[in-house]
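Backbone-to-sequence.
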């Protein structure tokens, strides 16, 4: 059985991939929250559940093609299989087995040491939060505790406590921040984050667990943004503009919900995304068969019976096979011949199996259509087969005999091979001592078996290593060659990127570019379109442009409007706020030429449209300056409101008077009530002064 903690990691990783591929872009944020929380719980519960025997894939295979008598496995045999071999074992093998156990024991110690460290970190964060919650000044707002902080940190919340620096923000922005954090509190998002932190304590070694916390936090922010926009008092553009204003460092504690700036662009994009259709909910149902498949593959059957054929019975009197966590050196094989190759699947009494393709010519002594013994020999050892091929398919039993000489050669090269199971894996991937020597010759002195296996399996040969070095890439190590080879990163691709201007590109950046489908042509096209713009285009910028679908056409369209010096950040902001050339042209038709980029951001964020300007102009105001437009819109002044003031006799009204009156609360209703009380003034500013005196 896969160890519990690794099985949990496997389930969590599979669920993460499922979420990223099918669910991440859906706008069913409440449902996504349920899925993210549910999968974390299921990952720890599922491995403990037994599976009915008829549904379990963990059954011993009965080889019916070879005539055999079935024999029951007695209790003595069962116990022998669960313990280390005690018969016909050499002293050298015993020592190797002991070393493996010591190594596994140290791995267990390392795991629990990590749990201890991350557990202490969790407790420390909780203590710090409690200290800050009750040591700083607090405003009680119903069930919400508002703690006023002084340093330059972004607002955040924990449980029912909200941390914010009120001196940093304007009143409207401050209110929107409070409403945002109150939604976090009302929705009890702290529970989600605490559960994710507990998962990280026990899954600290699992990179998918760290990514899981990120997507969970992102979904909570998407959910909160969606709840914010459902409020009647919140306009989408105004709220997005407020998010841009909250440009402070994050609160340095992961237990809090906060204005995470790294999520800002994603949040704005998600707010402007089309709502998911209810008919796409079918995707969520595929999670159930995925989890059922895991249970059937790996969970312990509720009732388990074992049968053995005559070939296995014959071996029961011999020494037990070496049963470790890796591949077993004895078991059953199943094969299919295709042309000049044969695909052989190795399966044993444990839960491990492996499928490998060999050249048919490697099978020495093979006789077709009758039971025979044949072998495959490689440097790591010899695989002895007993069985029968009928036509193109065959089955039988195998036993691997390790080549101790090869093991010593590997030790001389600095690669410690713990046991025969490791040598069998080397046999499967056809690893040779010359391969290790080749790596050393190319500068990789410290090579271990965990690196060798994927390198050999992916055929990272000397020609490939040499070609990567010849590309001029210098800052890469041996482990980088694994994703390079698997993703198809070769000399030609590296040459493309370096030719595009990135001479000192790192291995990580190459991997990121390749994963986004970015090649030299994309970079060249973008750089050509971006000529004359300020700021160098970095690898991170290119990756960001690609992820936001900013291409040459997008840049050219703004150049045609006269924006020839857009910075990289301005391009991303234009895209994230969905400011299109058509939007700019609407203002040009109204007479607004050469609008500053910052003014465009403000116009879009405040939802100032050509129609809004046209309505104000019809009220008698031409050539309105952008600053006046921002002031009018921020006070929610409409053409209808201006008409109400004019209907009260203020015919020579200027925009500053209207803005001041609205800001002070001197509404048309207030003016009318004051006139009825005998306060008749010719100027609106007199009523503004009167409002300041009488208050509400």
């Amino acid at each position: 059985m896969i160890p519990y903690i690794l099985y949990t990691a496997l389930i969590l990783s599979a669920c993460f991939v499922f979420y990223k591929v099918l669910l991440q872009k859906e706008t069913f944020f409440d449902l996504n929250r349920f899925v993210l929380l549910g999968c974390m719980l299921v990952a720890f519960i599922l491995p403990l559940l037994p599976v009915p025997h008829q549904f379990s894939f963990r059954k011993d295979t009965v080889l019916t093609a070879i005539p055999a008598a079935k024999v029951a496995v007695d209790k003595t045999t069962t116990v022998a299989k669960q313990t280390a071999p005690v018969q016909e074992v050499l002293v050298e093998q015993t020592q190797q087995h002991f070393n493996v156990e010591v190594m596994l024991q140290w791995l267990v110690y390392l795991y629990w040491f990590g749990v201890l460290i991350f557990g202490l970190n969790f407790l420390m964060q909780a203590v710090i939060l409690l200290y800050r919650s009750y040591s700083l000044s607090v405003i009680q707002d119903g069930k919400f505790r508002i703690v006023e902080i002084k340093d330059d940190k972004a607002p955040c919340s924990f449980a029912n406590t909200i941390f914010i620096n009120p001196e940093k923000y304007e009143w409207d922005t401050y209110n929107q921040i409070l409403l945002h954090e109150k939604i976090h509190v009302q929705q009890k998002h702290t529970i989600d984050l605490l559960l994710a932190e507990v998962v990280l304590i026990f899954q600290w070694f699992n990179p998918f667990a760290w990514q899981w916390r990120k997507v969970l936090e992102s979904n909570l922010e998407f959910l909160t943004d969606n709840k914010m926009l459902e409020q009647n008092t919140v306009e989408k553009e105004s709220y997005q503009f407020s998010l841009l204003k909250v440009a402070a460092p994050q609160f340095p504690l992961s237990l809090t919900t906060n204005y995470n700036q790294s999520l800002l662009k994603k949040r704005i994009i998600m707010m402007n995304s089309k709502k998911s259709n209810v008919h796409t909910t079918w995707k969520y149902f595929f999670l159930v068969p995925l989890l059922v498949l895991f249970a059937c593959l790996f969970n312990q059957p509720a009732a388990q019976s074992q049968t053995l054929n005559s070939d296995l019975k014959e071996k029961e009197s011999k020494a037990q096979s070496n049963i470790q966590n890796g591949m077993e050196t004895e078991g059953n094989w199943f094969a299919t011949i295709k042309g000049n190759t044969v695909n052989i699947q190795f399966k044993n009494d444990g839960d491990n199996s492996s499928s490998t393709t060999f050249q048919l010519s490697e099978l020495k002594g093979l006789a077709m259509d009758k039971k025979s013994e044949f072998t495959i020999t490689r440097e790591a050892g010899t695989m002895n087969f007993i069985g029968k091929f009928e036509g193109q398919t065959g089955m039988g039993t195998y036993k691997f005999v390790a080549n101790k000489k090869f093991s010593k050669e590997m030790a001389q090269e600095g690669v410690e091979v713990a046991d025969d199971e490791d040598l069998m894996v080397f046999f499967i991937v056809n690893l040779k001592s010359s391969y290790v020597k080749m790596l050393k010759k190319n500068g990789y002195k410290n090579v271990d078996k965990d690196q060798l296996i994927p390198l050999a399996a992916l055929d990272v040969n000397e020609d490939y290593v040499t070609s990567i070095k010849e590309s001029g890439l210098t800052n890469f190590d041996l482990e980088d060659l694994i994703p390079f080879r698997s993703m198809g990163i070769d000399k030609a691709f590296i040459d493309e990127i370096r030719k595009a201007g990135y001479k000192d590109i790192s291995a990580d950046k190459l991997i990121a570019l390749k994963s986004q489908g970015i090649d030299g042509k994309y970079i060249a096209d973008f750089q050509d379109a971006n000529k004359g713009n300020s700021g160098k285009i970095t690898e991170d910028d290119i990756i960001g442009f690609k992820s936001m679908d900013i291409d040459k056409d997008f840049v050219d369209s703004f150049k045609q409007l006269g924006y020839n010096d857009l910075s990289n950040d301005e391009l991303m902001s234009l895209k994230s706020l969905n400011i299109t050339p058509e939007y700019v042209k609407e203002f040009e038709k109204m007479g607004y030429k050469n609008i500053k980029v910052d003014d465009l951001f403000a116009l879009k964020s405040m939802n100032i449209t050509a129609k809004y300007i046209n309505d104000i102009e019809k009220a008698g105001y031409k050539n309105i300056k952008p600053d006046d437009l921002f002031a009018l819109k921020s006070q929610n002044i409409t053409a209808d409101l201006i008409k109400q003031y004019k209907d009260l006799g203020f015919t020579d009204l200027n925009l500053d008077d209207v803005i001041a009156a609205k800001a002070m609360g001197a509404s048309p209703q207030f003016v009318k009530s004051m006139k009825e009380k005998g306060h008749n003034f010719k100027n609106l500013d007199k009523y503004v002064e009167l409002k300041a005196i009488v208050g509400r």
